[in-house]
Design brief:
It is a single chain. By secondary structure, the protein is α/β, with parallel strands linked by helices. It has eight helices and five strands. It has a five-stranded mixed beta sheet. Helix 5 links the parallel strand 4 and strand 5. Helix 6 packs across helix 7. The N and C termini lie far apart (about 45 Å). The C terminus is likely disordered. The structure holds zinc ion. Zinc ion (ZN) binds next to helix 4.
Length: about 180
Amino acid sequence: MANAEHGYMDLAIAQARIGRSEGGIPIGAVLAGPDGVLGLGHNRRVQSDNPILHAEMDALANAGRLSYTDYLSATMYTTLSPCSMCTGAVLLYRIPRVVIGENATFLGEEELLRSRGVDVTVVDRTECTRLMQNFIAQYPTLWAEDIGEETDSSKRTGAASLIRASGCHPASNCHG
Ligand SMILES: [Zn+2]
């Protein structure tokens, strides 16, 4: 992997750490073009109480409205193998390259991406795996929720206590 690429994954990892420090799921993403960063993002599902704010979606949103050709020359860097929602967004905008920090924790739709001609590279960064493993050990229910798996409702207090631990829920008008 070239140095610039390594740098973009470092930025994605930094985003994951920001997400973790906010009480969220530690997944980060960077949408980059030939001239640099287009958008940074991290999973804000918990922080914003928003089920579609995965890291890749956040990066796309933060990049704003780009032209067709901007997407065609972009690369999506993500610390974790992309789920079907984020894969769909990559395919929709015809982003031709995806660089993935790790896929041991979760194997997303890499085969679908490849079958549609997307260049997929998995770089196996241990920082990415460690962030996820530590988080999942602590908050298994939040993780199951993020990837659309059934959760035991009796454990859902995990989310509430996580939000409490990080102070006010950012999406609420909490004054406490
Ligand atoms: Zn996703």
